[in-house]
# Entry
Amino acid sequence: MPLLVCPGDVPPVASFTNTPVSGLAVSFNATATGANNTYSWNFGDPASGASNTATGANATHTFSAAGTYSVALTVSNDCGSDIETLNVIVTNYTPPVVCSGAQTINNCSGVITDGSSGDYANNKNCTWLIAPTGASSVTLTFTLFNTEADWDFVDVYNGSNASAPLLGSYSGTSLPPTLTATSGQMFVRFTSDVSVVDDGFSANYSCTIPEPTGNKVQAKIYLEGAYNTTTNSMVSDLNTSLPLAQPFNAAPWNYAGTESIAATNNNIIDWVLVELYDGTSSTPIARKAALLYTDGTIHHTDGSLGADFGNNTWSAVRLSIRHRNHLPVMSKNTINVPNLTPYDFTTSVSQADGDAQMREIEGVAMMRAGDFNSDGTLTYIDYNLAISQLLSGSPTNYVTGDANLDRNITNTDFALYLNNLSYMSIPLLRY
Ligand SMILES: [Ca+2]
Ligand SMILES: [Ca+2]
Ligand SMILES: [Ca+2]
Ligand SMILES: [Ca+2]
# Structure
């Protein structure tokens, strides 16, 4: 007869629930049976480093990227242990915006709600202005509706405040119809009077952002200097120092385009120069300055996806991307303009023409850093230029010697340069 000396004489049974918190953060709560348990979590996200594991019955983990993760909980006590593994789908989660004074929402989709777990309170008065950037319309779809009929209201307006046209005023238990604010902004107000309360409401909002006019060249590319292998994206430390007008209007590019932005934001890494080649001419047939975002996508100055080449179309042209201090690259394959499927330089170094034109780090291809004079070759001249910028006394600016785009010239920048020393772009792209 076995002698059991553990609590309740039973080993634990592991189980847990998970709830999105905000962004890529998810909370995990053990619901295991057993007594005197210890808990050990593995979130299946080694890219997150030390935070990939945790102890305790409850834990919150911020995942390194959206995706599906195999999350394991091991529960142990003196009787034994058990492990539960679940596939958890992680998306960039926007939490509901709960009734609280006057709030402005810039997201394109999400949830608004009175926020009560049971009944809402008396004398509520709160507003939401749903005003996503660039939206042409905002649509609201109610998923729950229960207020005191004729006394507690949800009012919805087609505009930025309660002076805008009223789309509808709702109370009672009927789910309101789907409402669309064609102005691109929607104003919602919830009010309750001094007595009688009910469950409240919840509604999903979504927006339409119009397709940009003009023919776009879409591409995805990473800069080695700005790339972060942990987050799989680029850092935008430089955005506060970015020029508002495109910077390629000097040698060696001498590109006279008037592309400019009204303000920077922390999605933007830097400017890039997008060029198209027809395969016979040694000079580009068209050029356009555009903005490189943290996720590697290229955007027009109005924020829409792709470099905007106006009304022009081309078939079977090759695409080149230039940056101030990374080796320029050209697509191995041709594209048609406009291209709805971005040309993805990040999947493999063989996406670029020529041998070793890009660098591969942990399976991700990226432009090589350190071409400080932007001529397409890494030589001692680049080193001398960065040194002279450093010695000029104001290196904390928008200078080409800052290979990792952190607004300073330091050993890190020279290390990036040294690692790529003697590499050169294909002859067509060298100045
Ligand atoms: Ca009431
Ligand atoms: Ca409620
Ligand atoms: Ca150079
Ligand atoms: Ca730097």
About this structure: The radius of gyration is 28 Å. Residues 97-208 form a domain with the Jelly Rolls fold (CATH 2.60.120.290). Helices lie at 380-391, 411-420. Residues 148, 151-152, 192-193, 195-197 surround calcium ion (ligand 1) (CB under 6 Å).
